[in-house]
Design brief:
heterodimer, A: 126 residues, mainly beta, Umud Fragment, subunit A, globular, B: 159 residues, mainly alpha, Four Helix Bundle (Hemerythrin (Met), subunit A)
Chain lengths: 126, 159
Amino acid sequence: MVQSQLGCLPLKGVPIVDCNIWQLAMWCCRRRQRWQVQGRSMLPTLHPGDQVLVHPDAYQDTAPEVGDIVLAQHPYRCELRLVKRIISIADDCYFLQGDNFCESTDSRTFQAIPGDLILGKVISFF
Amino acid sequence: MVLRQLKKQIKHWFPAPVAQAHCDGPCGVYDPAAARIYTEAVVSMTRKILDLQPPADQNPQAMATYLNTMSRFIQIKEEQAQKAKEEILILWTDYFKPQHLEQFPDLHDMFWKAAKLCSSCKVEVNLQHAEELMTAVQGIHQVFWATKNRTNVPWYKAS
C-alpha cells in the first residue's frame, strides 16, 4: 500500500523497480519499449519526465490485473498514449485511474476501456 | 555505475516517446470560448482566402506577394482549425461526464460533427462549413453552460 504524498486516499499497488541489466538487454532486443511520462496524474509513483520500460507482450499469456500500471491508448484520441493504474476489471473492461487521482483524467471521465486498448505493462523505471 | 551511465547516454541519444499521465489539473477550468475564438479565426481566414485576388499582370513581385499572402492565410487557417479541434476534443473527452450524456443524449453526435467540421475547414476553403462550425460551437456553448446550470452566459463573437 502506497500512501499518496498529495493528501489523497491511499493507493493500491507496489512501487515499480529500477531498470536492471536484464531489462536493458530486453530493450536492446526491442522486447521492451521506453516511454517518457508527461503529466502529474501518476504522482507519487511516476513523476513528469520519468522514463519507464513497458513490456508490450506482458499480457499475451496472462490477463492484466488490478494494481498493474499499464500503457494504454486513449479511447477517443487514438494518437494519445496514457500511463494509468488498473483499479478494477469488469466484463473484460478495465477501469484506469491515476495514482494522483485528485489531478487525473481517467476512466472516471472516459469510462472503462476494452482490453485491446491496453498496450503493455509498465515494469520498471529506465 | 556503468549501467547508470549507459542509461544516461541512451536517454541523451535516443529520446523516448511521450506517454501521458494525463491531467487537466485540479482547477477544473473549462470554457468553450477558446474554441469559439479559434473558430472565428477560421471563418475570418476562409473569407480572406476567398477574397484575395491574384495580380492581373504578370509582375513577378506582385505574384510573389500574392503567393506569400495566400500561403500565410492558408497556414493560419490550418493552425486555427486544428486548435479549435483540440479545444473541442478536450471539452468532449475531459469535461463532459456520463451524467451529461444522460441529460443531452446527442452529445457525442454534436462533438463528433463539430470535430469533423474542423477537419473540413482544414481540408477545404469552404465558407459554409466554416460557418457551420461556428454554429456547432455555439451549440456546444449552450450545452456546456446548461450543464453548469448557468443560463446567464451570453453567446457573443469578437468579430
